[in-house]
Structure formats: C-alpha cells, structure tokens
Q: What sequence folds into this?
C-alpha cells in the first residue's frame, strides 16, 4: 500500500463532492456532495495515521471527522425541515433570503 | 495483491460518488453513495483501524436509509421516473472541481512526505480507547457536548409547533392554542 494511492482517492472524492455541492439544486443532493467531501477527508486522515503518524492521536482526527459528518447530516436535515415548513422551499435556488 | 484490492476499492469509491450525481433515481443515488462510503470504510479497515472502519460502515448504512426517507419526503422526483435536470452552474463547478483535483494530485506527488514517526500499536482499538479516556478526555467531552447540542438544535428546528406556539412567548397562556382539543373534558 502506498500513501499516494490513498490520497489520490481522497482528493477525487473531495473533488466529486465539491462538484455535487456546487451544482445540485436539491438541498438533499447538496448534502450528499458535502458527505462525499467529508468522506475524502476521513480517508486522508486514516492514511496519514497509517503511513506517517501512527500515534493514537491520529485516530482522534478520524473520530472528530466522523462526528462532524453525523452533525452535518443531522443539522442539514433539520434545516431542510425548518425551511420547508416555513417557506415550502426544497431547492437551493429558492432559498435566497440571505443573498446580498 | 493488496495494491490491486486498494485500487479496486478506490475505483468503486470514486465511481459510486460520480454515479450519485449521474443517475436519475434518488434511491439509486443513495445506494451509490452507500457503496462509495463502504468502499472507503473497507480501505480504512485495511489500514488496521478495525473499530473505526466498522463504526463507519454501520453509521453509513443507517445514515443512507434515513437519507432515502428524506429523499422521498422532499424530492419532487424521488423515483427518477420523469428525467429532469436539477443542476446549475455545471461548467463552472466542473472547472473548479477539476482544478482542485489537479492541484491536490500535484501536491500529493510533489510533496516531500516526512518519514513515519513511531510504530503502529498492536491493537489500535485499545490505543484509541486509552487515548479517549486519558489524554484526549477533553476532546471526547467536547465531542459529546457538541453531539448533545446537535440533538437539541435539530429538535428545535424540526419541531412544527413547540411550547411557545402553544402557550405564547411568555409561556403564560391559560389554555394551549392547539388546533384540536385534547385531554379530560374535551
């Protein structure tokens, strides 16, 4: 196994996720893009732990990223529910109240 | 052999991620994302992080099932029976993502990575547990409080009618303002 192989896959996941987050009109699909980006970060963190710094502290980064992923999903769905209840909005293009 | 398995998992992970934004059916998109997540989790298992890899697999299965429910709730075309475009700014996003990938890949191969410091523990799960309960107890407590705050915040955001809607801003209404009566003597 080589570090670069892990990191290239992680970079590809992050880039594909960014593409999805930037292009999707549906809020749920946008969240899928964000999840893919976090997935890439998680893989890179595990690779760094394995290849560069196998101290237990390295695993803590993976734990923190997994927690961030859970929080992102929970808050995302709750926000979608709140916006939909208030404005019947389920598309990002319609949620422009904070637009300058 | 290991490298071949790793490459196959990498192709599955990235291919699944790409398919998420290609397929019409939201159910298929959800399962493509799940396949991508499981491929990444298996790659993490290959690094020896047995506990974290297993947690990720279990978490992602539950998460994708919940996501499928939300898809059906909020997507106007969850089954993909009516082909429709739900993209915007595709060209700009492709350019940004492509440049980012090219930059990251160049950095990966050009960086002078340091030598490995220290040895991997024989049992990473035990090492993680000891770290969580000793040196990183504060981190664990912070993560716990953050997760608890998330539970409270999500319930507040998702609740349709809370106690302030029922009993007023001061919570001092004589009777709850409910659309339907309830309780004794309704």
A:
């Amino acid at each position: 196994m080589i570090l670069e192989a892990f990191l290239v896959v992680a970079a590809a996941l992050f880039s594909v996720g960014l593409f999805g987050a930037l292009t999707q009109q549906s809020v749920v699909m946008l969240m899928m893009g964000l999840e893919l980006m976090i997935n890439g970060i998680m893989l890179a963190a595990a690779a760094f732990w394995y290849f560069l710094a196998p101290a237990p502290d390295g695993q803590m980064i993976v734990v923190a990223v997994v927690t961030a992923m859970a929080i992102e999903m929970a808050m995302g769905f709750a926000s979608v529910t709140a916006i939909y209840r208030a404005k019947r909005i389920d598309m990002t293009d319609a949620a422009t109240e904070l637009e300058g | 052999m290991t490298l071949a398995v790793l490459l196959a998992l990498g192709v599955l992970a990235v291919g699944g991620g790409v398919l998420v934004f290609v397929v019409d059916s939201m159910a298929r998109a959800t399962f493509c994302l799940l396949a991508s997540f499981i491929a990444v989790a298996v790659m993490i298992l290959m690094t020896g992080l047995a506990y974290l890899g297993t947690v990720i697999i279990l978490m992602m299965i539950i998460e994708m099932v919940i996501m499928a429910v939300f898809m059906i709730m909020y997507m106007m075309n969850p089954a993909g029976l009516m082909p429709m475009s739900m993209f915007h700014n595709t060209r700009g996003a492709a350019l940004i993502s492509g440049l980012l990938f090219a930059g990251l890949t160049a950095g990966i191969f050009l960086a002078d990575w340091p030598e490995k410091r220290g040895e991997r523990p024989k049992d990473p799960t035990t090492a993680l547990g000891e770290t969580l309960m000793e040196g990183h107890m504060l981190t664990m407590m912070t993560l716990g409080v953050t997760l608890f705050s998330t539970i409270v915040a999500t319930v507040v955001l998702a609740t349709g009618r809370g106690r302030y809607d029922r009993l007023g801003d001061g919570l001092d209404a004589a009777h709850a303002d409910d659309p339907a009566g309830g309780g004794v003597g309704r």
User: Anything to note?
Assistant: Residues 56-87 of chain A form the longest helix (32 residues). The domain at 3-89 of chain A is CATH 1.10.287.3510 (Helix Hairpins). Chain A has a mean pLDDT of 88.
